[in-house]
Specification:
Largest sheet: 6 strands, mixed
Strand order of the largest sheet: 6-7-8-3-9-10
Strand content: 25-35%
CATH architecture: 3-Layer(aba) Sandwich
CATH topology: Rossmann fold
Number of strands: 10
Shape: globular
Radius of gyration: 17 Å
CATH class: Alpha Beta
Number of helices: 7
């Protein structure tokens, strides 16, 4: 089976005006090591799909398998374990903990999963993204690009088989965004992770091996 497998996935939300069906029988297969970009206008269901892929949102119907984990059957504890061991997530807003240093932010994800040698591994992850001189800096002392590099190091430090990236360069200027995305693509390539990238940037999407578009609650293949 593919590393990522979604079949006939449906998801809707209740609204005062009636039920809104956001995802309508969506299917997706991704092989290990592939890079996939998901494009679509605001409100098309991209964020909902990412929440389903991360196990943060349950489905109304369908199958969801991620790196051998059946997310439909897992309880919340099982989903938390899946996120801690098999998934990395990079957000647009960085989501660093303000009172922790760059090193401590990266190390925290390892401490949660009770990994050994967490400080050494966190240090190496920061070196890989060029932040060996920022270990002890707080998020408030980092630039936007540096903060996103810390977020990438945090997401990749446990070498997850799958990385989800939600508009990772959306809060950065063009030049900084290009450099940060270069770091992200390099990490994915060198560590052999599978990348699922949500972006509004057509040029960035073209850097991925596959490109799909959210249309009418389903995915339409745009580039293979």
């Amino acid at each position: 089976m593919s590393l990522v497998h979604l079949k006939d996935v449906k998801k809707g939300f209740d609204h005062p005006s009636g039920r809104i069906e956001v995802i309508k029988g969506l299917n997706l297969e991704i092989e290990a090591g592939q890079t996939l970009a998901i494009l679509g206008p605001s409100g098309s269901g991209k964020s909902t799909l990412l929440s389903i892929l991360s196990g943060l949102e349950s489905v109304d119907d369908g199958q969801v398998s991620m790196a051998g984990h059946d997310l439909v059957q897992l309880n919340e504890k099982g989903r938390s374990h899946f996120r801690a061991t098999s998934l990395g997530i990079v957000f647009q807003q960085f989501h660093l903990i303000g009172h922790l240093s760059a090193l401590e932010n990266v190390q925290l994800s390892l401490d949660i999963s009770k990994s050994s040698s967490s400080k050494d591994r966190a240090s190496e992850a920061l070196r890989r993204v060029g932040l060996e001189d920022r270990f002890n800096h707080l998020p408030s002392e980092l630039s936007g690009g540096e903060s996103q590099r810390v977020a990438i190091a945090r997401a990749m430090v446990h070498r997850p088989p799958i990385l989800l990236a939600d508009e990772p360069s959306g809060n950065l200027d063009g030049t900084t965004g290009d450099k940060v995305m270069g770091d992200l693509f390099r990490e994915v390539r060198e560590l052999g992770s599978t990348l699922i990238l949500v972006t509004h940037n057509e040029g960035l999407a073209q850097e991925c091996q596959r490109l799909v578009r959210m249309e009418g609650g389903r995915l339409v293949e745009a580039k293979t």
